[in-house]
Each structure stands twice: as C-alpha cells, then as structure tokens.
Amino acid sequence: MTGADTTGSDTTGSDTRGTGTADTGGGPALGIGPDPVVLRPRVLLISAWVSAAIVVAIFAVVAYLLPEVDTGVYFRAADQVSMLVLGLLIAGGLLLMARPRVRADAGGIEIRNVWATHWYPWAEVEGIAFPDGASWARIDLPDDEYLPVLAVQAVDRQLAVRGIRTLRGLHGDSRRPARG
Fold it and tell me: Which keywords belong to this entry (predicted)?
C-alpha cells in the first residue's frame, strides 16, 4: 500500500539514535518530500479497529446491564459510567497498535511505531532487512543497531513484499552516485 499520504502527522515522536530528528508534525521539516511512499500494516490495522469496537460494545452492554444483575451490591450510575470509561481506555490502548507507519522518499525514511517516530536519512541506514521467521521488518543502523519497522509485517504477505522491495529500491537509489 503505497501512495502520497501526507495527512497524518504525529507530534509525539522522539528520536534516540543517530542524527535523525523527532517528528515535528510536518513532512518537509523531516526531509520527507511532497510525494512519499507510505506503508501501513493492513491486517494489524483491521484487527486493532475491530478489537477496539468489540471491547467498547462489550463494556457498554455490561455497563447497561450492571444494575439489573442481583449480586447483593448496589450499582449506581457512576459505576456504569466507570465501566464505559474503562472500556474506552482499553479500546484506546488497542488502537495504539494501529499507529505504525513508514514514510520514505529519496531523502530518507520516517518510521512511526507504537510510541515513537524516528527519521533517518538514507546515508545512516545500512540496510533494510526482513529476517527469516521475523514478524516484521527492520532497518539496520551503524554499530549493529537496528530499528523495528512494525508497519511492514509478515502477516500482510504480498503487501509486505512490495513494501520491502520499494524501501530497498529507495535505499539503493540513494547509494548510487549522482550522474551529472
């Protein structure tokens, strides 16, 4: 799943390695051009949204039926609201799994996993790997470090293969000397 998706911006990222910079909410500030390749996990995205909807529905039903069950305890409206809020919090936690995204162009790669967003110019990326038996891809960095790429997952099969090929192509193009 590639295309120009510049609508999603994230201001909660942080960078812990290299000279990459934290996401400040805009593509050009990161070195991401106007037409980046965007990759997102399809199966994980669907699973997260469906699971969150089911959790909210279950907690809403439990909250509604709470006063009807004879347990010897008196449940009030505050207890019902608390059950619904608890369900919404759990659903929000599940939706964090829908965050992973990769945006890449000729200048570099931005990886947004569950919590943090990292941006690296291609010069800092040594390779893009999908080890045998791994659940997701990773980028290899200097000093034997790597960063998981949760947006490219094995369960997405051909989508993951196309995504890895695209990222490797961009990485390879950045390593070729410029013709002039």
Answer: Membrane, Transmembrane, Transmembrane helix
> In the prediction, which pLDDT does 34 show?
66
Could you read off the pLDDT of 151-162 as tens digits, one per residue? 999 999 999 999
171 and 152 within one domain:
yes
| Ordered DSSP codes for the chain | --S-------SS----STT-----S-HHHHT--SS-EEE--HHHHHHHHHHHHHHHHHHHHHHHHGGGS-SSS---HHHHHHHHHHHHHHHHHHHGGG--EEEEETTEEEEE-SS-EEEEEGGG--EEE--TT-SEEEEEETTTEEEEEEEEEGGGTHHHHHHHHHHHHHHHHHHSPPP-
Least confident of 51-60, 61-70, 106-115: 61-70
Task: Tell me if the pTM is above 0.85.
Answer: no
The domain of 169 spans: 36-41+99-175
Q: 14 in a domain, yes or no? A: no
